[in-house]
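User: Okay, second chain of the day. Same drill as before: sequence in, structure tokens out.
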Amino acid sequence: MRAVLIIGNNYKLNNDDLKNSYIIGVDKGALYCLHNNIKMDLAVGDFDSVSKEEFEIINNNSKKIIKLNCIKDTSDTNSAIKLVIDYDEIHILGGIKGKRIEHLFSNIIDLINYPNLSLRDEDSLIEVIRDNNYKIKNGYKFISLFALEDSIISLNGFKYNLNKYLLKPNDSLCLSNEIIDNPKIDLEKGKVIIIYSHAD
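Assistant: Same drill. Structure tokens below.
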């Protein structure tokens, strides 16, 4: 089972993103869904980022809605994740760019805590590599790797390859490595964040 959480408007949605998925519009993401004729299964959030008039539009046009208390100990996105935590895949669309960079940091913490998550917008994709079965995603020009714990990695098919390199959490060596041909990442030990990017 796959869930898609739409949390921002900085992503051009297509049918492949949404097919065979349980779709949740999170807070203002629910309004974005309605403006783009996306049929949500659920709208969830405290909806403090929309006006009263916009909330009424969401409330009147959603199959199901969960309105959260504005005073809470978690983000709207985290609350939505917990509703679908048993799904095999949870794709979060939007939420990388924006004026509230602390929300990006919170989303990355969720990626670390929940192994079935990915975070994507128009230019970037962020995931966590936890074992040596990871498959490189197509269509990106650069990757960056950041260790969450001491990690031993090998890289092939990149501009800068590595052989059994010990990547530590305070090491930025693997920033913006260019994908060349048939890229492969071998993670012998540890856990790393991978960030894909289109942009130069």
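The chain has two domains: 2-122, 129-197.

User: Thanks, on to the next one.
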